[in-house]
Amino acid sequence: MKTFGSLLLVSIMILLGEMPCRTLEQDIDRPDICPAKRCICLRYQPPECKNDSSCTGGQICCFYCCKRRCVDPRKEKPGRCPRFPEKRCFPIEPDQCEVDDQCPLAEKCCPGSCFRLCVNPIKRYSKFLTSKSLN
User: Nearest CA to 35 among 63, 56, 55, 57?
Assistant: First the structure.
């Protein structure tokens, strides 16, 4: 019985280590221009930058894959991502894309149920109806 408990604890620790690294800092760290990246964070990593002026070549300082580092700003395509149904994902599948620029034509890189993928965006419609739109 004691062996089973130890095995269960080790299994849970392994599964938690495989979960994507999502921290509060990452979630609120300029999501409009900082690229999103799921990654496995096993230990603290010291920052490579403090702010945008620490970076060169048009890069910006963002929390990216477990630490602050200089990265290229995200270039967002127009439209918004569709919502996917939530489900349990095991094993965790790798993302098919990280940013919109990696997707063909007008497709956007969007969070799916278990990984990021390229999909056609939902177009933004005018909030005003015209008589032509009703015919």
Answer: 63
Q: What is the pTM of this model?
A: 0.46
Handedness of CA 96, 101, 104, 106 (dihedral sign): positive
Q: Is-contact 93 114, C-beta < 8 A?
A: yes
Q: Hey, CA dihedral for 51, 55, 58, 64, is it positive or negative?
A: negative
Q: Indicate if the alpha-carbon torsion angle 101, 107, 112, 115 is positive or negative.
A: negative
> What are the structural domains, with CATH classification, of the chain?
20-74 (4.10.75), 75-124 (4.10.75.10)
Q: Which residue has the tokens 């970076």?
A: 55
| Mean pLDDT confidence for 34-55 | 86
